[in-house]
Specification:
Layout lengths: L7 H10 L2 E2 H12 L7 H13 L3 E13 L5 E15 L1 H12 L7 H8 L7 H29 L5 H29 L16
Antiparallel strand pairs: 1-3, 2-3
């Protein structure tokens, strides 16, 4: 994660579904957000500590069952094994998650928008539409700036820099088309299945 404090939303969102220990949370975050969102222990555990201090999560210790085997190799007895710390969301955490998800001010950049999109199912149609429209406006402004830069600097940059600029422009156009599809689906839910959700490449 690039910014401190960004993990709170996805951690609370995953704990809404079920209690998890740290390893499981890290694995689920990677599966949900993709390979470009590597979550280190150095960012996950401080996040969990902050959430616990805020009363948003609580720790529950559980023992992992361990079987003892006899000389024949057959299990003879099940005993309590190593204890693991499992995290559980509280009502305070539920409230914090709802507030963070509905907040629209910081939802336009790639990182925040991707995190919110992963939990869109917890938002009402109007809130989803507002976030999508803010993201589209941000991308449209970016596209206009990219086109202006190309017009101004095309003759002064080498072919590699020009190729990079063109790639960024095409990626932004693709992201806008995808957001347009999502907006159309939100406004007309009977048109069929929504377009497949995917993280965008735009910052």
């Amino acid at each position: 994660m690039k910014q401190p404090g960004v993990l709170e939303l996805p951690v609370l969102g995953l704990l809404k579904e079920r209690d998890m220990h740290g390893y499981e949370l890290r694995k689920q975050l990677g599966a949900m957000l993709g390979p470009f969102w590597q979550v280190s222990w150095g960012s996950l555990y401080p996040t969990l500590r902050r959430l616990a201090k805020a009363g948003a999560v609580e720790k529950v210790e559980t023992a992992t069952p361990r079987r003892r085997t006899g000389r024949s190799g057959k299990a003879t007895k099940t005993t309590a094994g190593r204890r693991k710390t499992v995290y559980r969301i509280t009502q305070r955490g539920e409230d914090m998650f709802a507030l963070m998800l509905e907040e629209t001010g910081a939802a336009v950049d790639h990182e925040h928008f991707t995190l919110k999109l992963a939990f869109f199912r917890y938002l009402g149609p109007e809130a989803r539409l507002a976030l999508l429209e803010r993201r589209r406006a941000y991308l449209q402004d970016k596209l206009a700036q990219l086109k202006a830069n190309l017009r101004e600097y095309r003759e002064r940059i080498d072919s590699y820099a020009l190729s990079l600029q063109n790639h960024d422009l095409l990626s932004t156009q693709s992201d806008i088309a995808w957001i347009d599809e999502l907006i159309t689906k939100e406004r007309n839910p009977n048109l069929g299945p929504a377009p497949e959700a995917r993280p965008t490449n735009s910052p």
